[in-house]
Design goal:
By secondary structure, the protein is an alpha/beta fold. It folds into two domains: 73 residues, Arc Repressor Mutant, subunit A; 152 residues, Glucose-6-phosphate isomerase like protein, domain 1 (Rossmann fold, 3-Layer(aba) Sandwich), CATH 3.40.50.10490. It has twelve helices and five strands. Strands 2-1-3-4-5 form a five-stranded parallel sheet, with helices on both faces. Helix 6 crosses helix 11 and helix 8 runs parallel beside helix 11. The radius of gyration is 23 Å and the shape is globular. One of its GO terms (biological process) is carbohydrate derivative metabolic process. This is Sugar isomerase. It holds the Pfam family SIS. Keywords: DNA-binding, Isomerase, Transcription, Transcription regulation.
Length: 292
């Protein structure tokens, strides 16, 4: 749930509700106001802001308004010229559709990049490269997206499996241990099956990385490391999951690159050596032919 949605959903006493209403109406500019200035504008007490912040899990007004500012900036950036749910219309020409999909993909990657934090990337890299086994938990459609990531990781020597069949996911979670790194992919972050698997993983001491939408959700708040999927699509009232799939692919590409770079020269030599040995493809296009 987004922070602004939490403010809308929470029940507050009359004095606090005055503040909440003002915050919701002036979210764009609220970061400029101190607690005393906001209280003066609404004829309330500054301590009410502290109580509101604590109800939402923040230390005080400064932390809350910074989080509100970051959320507002995210929601009002990147996707200004294209609709993630209906990126093209019935009257668009084929080339216009192609252009809009290209714009959508470009916006999605930039949007996802804006959600990444260096500390989260470093933590994810550590979890992946120190693990003795990696398990990817994903539903059917996300599992299809994740298969290439799993294949790439195997090619550079990682012990990794994909579990996209719900019944088997419980077994994989149950047999995890402190040397396991689990990646849980869920756009909503509220897949009850994966929430249960995550709880089992945590009980067994496994390290966990989540890929979910922004905002507080059951999976991201439980995971050790949380990476955010671009959050622009509705759950089902969309033409297709264009942006969420592109975002997940990008994040998995980043995770693969992070794992690869820890042993960069060794991994590169291994890929080239196995390619020479087993890749039998040929091409008449000089540009893509190997030099050797």
């Amino acid at each position: 749930m987004l922070l602004i949605e939490q403010l809308q959903a929470e029940t507050f006493p009359p004095g606090e509700q005055l503040l909440v209403d003002y915050i919701l109406e002036h979210t764009e500019d609220i970061h400029q106001l101190s607690a005393s200035a906001l209280a003066q504008l609404t004829h309330t007490n500054p301590t009410s802001l502290v109580r509101i912040a604590k109800k939402l899990g923040y230390v005080g007004w400064s932390d809350l308004k910074e989080a509100l500012r970051e959320e507002w900036l995210y929601l009002n950036s990147h996707f200004t010229a294209v609709d993630a749910n209906q990126p093209f219309t019935a009257t668009d020409s084929p080339l216009r559709i192609a252009s809009k999909i290209a714009s959508l993909e470009q916006n999605t990657i930039q949007d996802t990049l804006s959600l990444l934090e260096p500390s989260d990337l470093a933590q994810a890299q550590h979890f992946l490269t120190e693990a003795q086994e990696i398990i990817v938990f994903a539903g059917h459609s996300n599992g299809m997206v994740a298969r290439e990531f799993v294949s790439r990781m195997r090619r550079i020597g990682f012990k990794i499996i994909l579990t996209d069949i719900y019944d088997y996911s419980y077994y994989e979670a149950y047999h995890s241990n402190p040397d396991t790194c689990a990646i849980i992919i869920s756009y909503s972050g509220e897949n009850l099956h994966f929430v249960e698997c995550l709880d089992i993983l945590k009980q067994n001491g496994a390290k966990t990385i989540s890929l979910t939408s922004i905002g507080a959700n059951s999976i991201s708040t439980r995971a050790d490391c949380s990476l955010k999927i671009t959050t622009r699509e509705k759950l089902y009232s969309k033409i297709a999951n264009f942006t969420s799939s592109t975002s997940i692919i990008y994040l998995l590409n980043v995770l693969y690159a992070l794992a690869f770079t820890v042993r960069y020269e060794t991994n590169l030599a291994h890929i080239q050596r196995t390619g020479r040995r087993f890749d039998q493809r040929v091409s008449t296009v000089r540009l893509i032919q190997e030099d050797e």
